[in-house]
Amino acid sequence: MPDDNGPDLREDQHAAALTRVLEILKKLDPEGVWRVIETVATYFKTGHALPTRAPAGVLPLPSFSEDRSLSPKQFLLEKAPQTDVEKVACLAFYLTHYRDMRYFKTLDISKLNTEAAQIKFSNATAAVNNATGRDHYLAPAGKGAKQISAFGEKFVQALPDREAAKTVMAQARQKRRPRRPARSNNHSANGNV
Fold it and tell me: Angle at which helices 9-25 and 30-44 pack, to 10 degrees?
């Protein structure tokens, strides 16, 4: 309901307050964000149930829709990938969430890279293969197509915060099974020396 100061005053106040709060919360680690939100909700006795906390070390996903109007160039500037493989992960995330392209090929990544006015990949195929096999940001989707993996999504969401991204990478490494040791040449196949 509009007040005497004009119809949009209250909405402007809400927007200004939200902007200030988000600027402050962005400076905190995920645990600090939860602590502040819970404290504010308790202080104001909102009566609204808070979402359950994410497990320690896991970054909570945003519960509101992100701004989908960012250009690929703006998106990469915000994420600040440092390697070709990280850039592939960011471009894959963009294709999936901003272009509704769940499955894509290396050519799609290269075209989006050009649209984003980025330096050309020295070897796009190698970067996509490394993002898939070595770093697990992407997963095979059949018929030569790829898709962003759950780990890849978490990694891109953590960027540009390098510490949060390192935490995501460390968690992913812990979940991977260790390789089996190679058999020694001193033993035969039946176990005799």
Answer: 140
